[in-house]
Design goal:
By secondary structure, the protein is α/β, with parallel strands linked by helices. The chain folds into 2 domains: 3-139 and 260-305, 3-Layer(aba) Sandwich (Rossmann fold), CATH 3.40.50.450; 141-256, Rossmann fold (3-Layer(aba) Sandwich), CATH 3.40.50.460. It has helices at 16-29, 40-45, 79-91, 103-116, 140-161, 176-184, 199-211, 229-240, 262-280, 300-305, 312-321, and strands at residues 3-8, 33-37, 49-52, 96-101, 120-124, 164-169, 189-191, 217-222, 246-250, 286-291, 294-299. The structure holds adenosine-5'-triphosphate.
Length: 323
Amino acid sequence: MKRIAILTSGGDAPGMNACIRAAVRGAIYYEAEVYGINQGYQGLIENDMFRMYSHSVSNILQHGGTILKSARSEEFKTKEGRKKAYENLKEREITGMVAIGGDGTFTGAHIFYEEFGIPIVGVPGTIDNDIYGTDKTIGFDTAVNTTLDAIDKIRDTADSHGRIFFIEVMGRDSGYIAIQSAIGGGAESVILPEKESTPDDIVNHLRDGMRRDKSFSIVVVAERDVPGYAVELAKKVSEVITNKDIRVTILGHIQRGGSPTSTDRTLASRLGLGAVEGLIDGKTNQMVGIINDKIVYTSLHDAITKTKPLNPDLIRAMKILSM
Ligand code: ATP
C-alpha cells in the first residue's frame, strides 16, 4: 500500500485546488492512501496532516486559493526543521509526496529528497509562469485574465479623460504576466524585468503615440522587489510629459485570487494526476510539467537551476502592435 502526502507551498495560485483534487482522486484510483498537509512545509514540521478521501475534495475545483493553505516556512530551511518533517512522514509510513508550488518549494523539496530520500514529485503552481520544464504554470492563465479585465476597465476611463495610465502587475523576476497583459490589453508600452527601459525610452514611445493622435495610453509595468515601481516611473515621466494627466494603478493581490479559468482547471487536473502517476511509476526528485500538450517530467535540479526565458516572439509582437 502506497501512502502519499500532498502540500501546497509558497505563493498561492488559482487552480491549486483543482490540482489537489486531481492528486487525491488519482491516488485513490491507484489504491494509495492520501494525507493532506496543512500550511506547506510548516505543517509538515508541525505534523499538521489529515487523511483525505474522494469526498474531501468535492466542490473545490472551481475555487481559488488552496484548501490545504500555504505558508512560507523559515524552519524548513534548517536541517533540524527538515529532520522533524522527515520523522513525521516516517511515523505515518508515507512513501511519497506531491509538492505544489514555485521554485522555492522545489528547492526545499530537492534538498529534502537529497537528505532523507523521500520520493517527491513537484507540481508547478505559481502565477508567474517562471518555471523551466513546463509551458505553463498553474494560475498564470487566470492571473493574466484578471489583469486583462482590469486593463479593459482602466482603458475606458483613460479614454474618457485622455490620460496616461501606468498599471503595475506581478512578476518581479519574470515578465510573462506583464508581456501577455500588455499584448492582450493593447498597451502602448511594457516594462519588463528582463529588459532595461529608461524613463526616456518610455517618454519617447508615448510621444510617438501622441504624434500619431493617440489620446490616451496604457503602460504595463512588471513589479520590482518592492511594490510601487510604477509610481516611481510615472513620476519621472510626468516631469517630462507635462501636458497629460498621468495616473497609476497597482493591481496587487487580486491577481492571485479568483476562480481558475478553464485552461488552469485542465492544466491543474492533468498535472495533479501526472504527479501521482509519476510517484506510482517510481519517479522521484522530479517535477511534472506539460510541454507541447504532453505530460513530461524534469529533474527538480533542472527545474530550479534552468531559466525559462521570455518567448522573444511575444516581445516582437508587442513592439509591432503597440505602434
Ligand atoms: P512563489 O514563486 O509563488 O513565490 P515559491 O515556492 O517560490 O512560490 P518560496 O516562498 O520561495 O515560494 O518558497 C516556499 C517555501 O519553500 C519556503 O517558505 C521554504 O519553506 C521552502 N524553501 C525555499 N527555499 C528553501 C531552501 N533553500 N531550503 C529549504 N527550504 C526552502
